[in-house]
Write a structure and sequence with these properties.
This protein is α+β, with helices and mostly antiparallel strands. A hairpin with a 2-residue loop joins strand 32 and strand 33 (386-392). The longest helix is centred in the last third of the chain and has 18 residues, at 644-661. The two termini are 16 Å apart.
Length: 665
């Protein structure tokens, strides 16, 4: 796989099923290098054995949902100003009708049970900002007064002056005559431009919430009378990750606390069963409200009257890890579907109301989304040969999006497990180019730390292998998918057993395979992987070169610059200055002799740019061979969701760096 082959990587979002289970819809997304953006459309498959058919031709259509009556599909599409809006099409396909028109953009939406309305959450910008005044550029806006703990977020920028609020709007009639109005003046907020007129939404939305507090997600109650949402008060006034689940009345907008913040939960996904039972994925961040490391995420249900029920836990967080990114709940009869992260896989589980857990999908897959209707269950997933496919449970895979990248050439990594120096097992993989070798070897380290490498096709590894490098990567202590104790073991001890795990795994794999040249080795990692790379090269000087990317490098400055700085470092490295220094790559930079490429994104608010520039400056001041590459306009998600051209240029820079320090044939 070459760098430009990322254009063949098609990923799938969460699918949706028609109520009669006869139709599945889903959104695709892939990097388009020519357009220099990720593009995607909505697809339909007639079950059980139909052929995938593209329904829309938008640039980046996402999040399709079939209406409860099965007649329409709602999805998100950017308007002419780039704001995400809800559009609706007939279930069979056709011209999309715009259902919302909100300047700040829709973040999530849901159909009402009777298909008559659409509830949605959208950002509401403060007047005088974000284009609310014609001709007023961002640099001319008034200063921002910040009084809370949290004021910005990676990928978004400032957030306190554009909270997310709830709305409800009548669902459009997709067969009605289009409604047009004159072209907009400076005071209008219309989008969807034609040459002389503007196609407007047929109904005005009603705003249900207001104020400074944001709301995360929107789900209708079974009777359609309320919208369930998480009141996003995380770190608004004080450092606390606990949240409240509230029900907002569609008529009148009165709020009922279904699960109070004082109950001690951090609520993630929410779903509602036909009988009105509410299911949530939630963790308990402890008495401090900030204990987020390897969280005890579990499936809970709330039965009975709104606000009058006590959550009942159905799953054991010590046995199942429901904290995978994008993890959600699907109701299926009286049961629930959830995703379990384990040893580099993501399984699909069915959980009864008595807490009985049954595995529906396992093996070499990472389930990314699921939907159920009648007796059918569909799920999107990644595999060792594809980043996105759709399958019907009991039938098999319905798509073949991975064929395109397979035709370009990929290798399947070999799975390994070794016993480390202290007797602890370390699990991971090695990917080796075709041939006898010996090949130079690169040690790759994942971010997180509470994340994991998995079995899915990984472009980072494939591009390196194509360039002639063997790649070794594992899930050391601190990673996810091996139990909470594994994930919490580096709390207050970063750079200890995690370092020994990755080095022990690397040594064991290299020593056991004659194709791997242990005398020619390099190391690279991003985010927490950047941290551990920087930490290792300060303590182990065997590597010919290193790449430190978007790293967590200085716990002290991280506190006041990162969007998670108020709690992340405190929980992982502590608050004692001596303890922080003992775990800080910046404090150990003086010991680095390894040639180092520092890569970072200009708008990274998770690990801010100053983490890179200060580390790079220290390397240069002491005479260590170092270079720095900064990507304009990108954030922490560059390698996963950045501009395709930047992603290709990044790969080119990585290969060029290794070709200088670890040349191959």
């Amino acid at each position: 796989m070459r760098a430009t082959d990322i254009a063949a990587l098609v990923s799938l979002g969460r699918p949706s099923l028609a109520p009669d289970a006869g139709v599945a819809v889903f959104a695709t997304s892939r990097p388009d290098i020519v357009a220099d953006r990720n593009v995607g459309q909505i697809w339909r498959i007639d079950l059980p054995d139909g052929t995938p058919r593209r329904l829309t031709r938008g640039v980046a259509d996402t999040q399709p949902q079939v209406s409860p009556d099965g007649g329409r599909i709602a999805f998100l599409r950017a308007d002419a100003d780039g704001a995400q809006q809800v559009f609706v099409i007939p279930a069979s396909g056709g011209e999309p009708v715009q259902a919302t028109d909100v300047r700040g953009g829709v973040t999530s939406f849901a159909w009402s049970p009777d298909s008559a309305r659409i509830g949605f959450a959208a950002r509401v910008p403060e007047q005088g900002r974000y284009g609310t005044v014609e001709g007023l550029p961002a640099e001319a806006e008034s200063p921002r007064r910040i009084t809370g703990v949290r004021w910005h977020a990676n990928g978004l920028g400032y957030i306190a002056d554009r909270p997310v609020h709830l709305f409800v709007v009548d669902a459009p009639d997709v067969d009605a005559e289009p409604f047009y109005s004159p072209a907009p003046t400076a005071s209008t907020t219309s989008t969807a431009h034609t040459s002389e007129t503007v196609r407007r939404v047929a109904a005005e939305a009603t705003q249900l919430t207001s104020g400074a507090v944001s709301h995360d997600g929107v789900v209708f109650t079974a009777d359609g009378g309320h919208l369930l949402t998480v009141r996003d008060e995380i770190e608004q006034d004080h450092r606390d990750l606990r949240t409240a689940l509230v029900a907002v009345a569609v008529a009148g907008s009165d709020e009922t606390e279904v699960l109070e913040r004082a109950a001690g939960f951090a609520v993630g996904d929410v779903a509602v069963a036909e009988d009105g039972t509410i299911a949530v994925l939630a963790s308990r961040p402890g008495d401090s409200g900030r204990d987020f490391i390897a969280p005890d995420v579990a499936l809970y249900i709330l039965e009975g009257e709104l606000g009058a029920s006590v959550p009942r836990r159905l799953t054991d967080p010590e046995a199942t890890d429901l904290d995978e990114v994008g993890s959600h709940i699907t109701t299926v009869g009286a049961d629930f579907l959830v995703q379990n992260r384990t040893r580099g896989r993501v399984e699909l589980l069915r959980v009864s109301r008595e807490g009985a857990v049954r595995t529906l999908v396992d093996g070499d897959v990472e389930v990314g989304g699921h939907a159920a209707a009648g007796d059918r269950i569909v799920f999107s997933h990644a595999t060792p040969s594809s980043v996105g496919e759709l399958s019907l449970l009991g039938t098999g895979t319905l798509t073949s999006f991975g064929d395109a990248i397979g035709a370009r050439g990929i290798v399947r990594p070999a799975e390994r497990e070794i016993t480390g120096r202290d007797g602890y097992p370390v699990h991971g993989w090695v990917a080796v180019p075709a041939g006898e070798g010996p090949f130079p070897v690169i040690l790759q380290i994942h971010g997180g730390p509470y994340a994991a490498y998995g079995v899915h096709l990984f472009d980072e590894t494939q591009v390196l292998v194509d360039a002639g490098y063997a790649v070794v990567y594992c899930n050391p202590r601190g990673s996810a998918g091996y139990g909470r104790a594994h994930g919490r073991s580096i709390r207050g001890a970063m750079g200890t057993v995690d370092m020994s795990d990755v080095l022990d795994f690397f040594d064991a794999v290299v020593e056991s395979d004659a194709r791997l040249d242990g005398s020619r080795v390099g190391i690279q990692g991003g985010s927490y992987g950047g941290y551990l790379t920087a930490w290792i090269i300060a303590h182990d000087h065997r590597f010919a070169a290193a790449i430190v990317e978007r790293g967590f490098l200085d716990p002290v400055s991280f506190r006041g610059t990162s969007d998670i700085g108020s709690f992340f470092g405190d929980e992982y490295v502590g608050t004692d200055p001596a303890a922080m220094t003992r775990q800080s790559p910046m404090a150990a930079v003086g010991a680095v002799r390894t040639p180092t490429l520092v890569m970072h994104s200009e708008l990274d608010f998770r690990c801010p740019l100053e983490q890179a520039t200060r580390y790079y400056s220290a390397l240069k001041r002491q005479g260590t061979d170092a270079e720095m590459l900064i990507f304009p306009g990108e954030n922490h998600e560059l390698t996963r969701a950045g501009r395709p051209r930047h992603r290709v240029e990044r790969f080119d820079a990585v290969i060029e760096w290794w070709s200088r320090h670890l040349p191959t044939d």
